[in-house]
């Protein structure tokens, strides 16, 4: 036994099925246009980005190690830090943490097919050499290593001596 009332169909079992009422032609055209737009967005395929050469920025402070890989124009391909790998406190600045950060960054950017890197190191932390070594062990060709650590040459003007 089937009863039909106000867009609902009641079947003998306790299930209810909603039946849509016929709509005006103008609304259907709008709806079909919307679904066509949505379908084009869904069907669009992403192009695979291939980056043979990249730049690696390593920031090793006393408290943390952060590594960012970019393409030659500076667009970020992937990054990682010791804090994002759940290292806490002074363990973030260790060479072991720096090695794991480098490996995580390499995993994130593996899909780009990077073969050659230029490395830019900044900071005085303990993970400087360890992170560079991790990139070397991963099979990257290292074109150059540049130190960007800021060094003061004479610094700011001193305060004048206090007169008592």
Strand order of the largest sheet: 6-5-4-7-8
Overall morphology: elongated
Q: Let me know the CATH homologous superfamily of the domain at 53-147.
A: Ribosomal protein S11/S14
Summarize the amount of helix as a percent range.
25-40%
Multimeric state of these chains?
Answer: single chain
Termini, distance in Å?
106 Å
Using only C-alpha atoms, the radius of gyration works out to 30 Å
Low-confidence stretches: none
**CATH architecture of the domain at 53-147, please?**
2-Layer Sandwich
Report the top-level CATH class of the domain at 53-147.
Alpha Beta
Major sheet attributes: 5 strands, mixed
Query: Beta fraction of the residues?
Result: 25-35%
- Tally of contiguous helical segments: 3
- Write down the CATH topology of the domain at 53-147: Nucleotidyltransferase, domain 5
Number of strands: 8
Mean pLDDT: 82
List the topology elements.
Elements (H helix, E strand, L loop, with lengths): L2 E3 L2 E3 L5 E3 L6 H19 L9 E8 L4 E6 L5 E6 L13 H14 L7 E7 L5 H10 L3 E7 L17
Q: What does this protein structure show overall?
A:
The structure is a single chain. The chain is an alpha/beta fold and 164 residues long. The chain has a domain at 53-147: Nucleotidyltransferase, domain 5 (2-Layer Sandwich), CATH 3.30.420. Helices cover 26% and strands 26% of the residues. The chain contains three helices and eight strands. The protein has helices at 25-43, 95-108, 128-137; strands spanning 3-5, 8-10, 16-18, 53-60, 65-70, 76-81, 116-122, 141-147. The strands form two sheets. A five-stranded mixed β-sheet has the order 6-5-4-7-8, with helices on one face. Strands 1-2-3 form a three-stranded antiparallel β-sheet, with no helix packed on it. Helix 2 (95-108) packs across helix 3 (128-137). It is elongated and about 70 Å long. The model has no long low-confidence stretch (mean pLDDT 82).
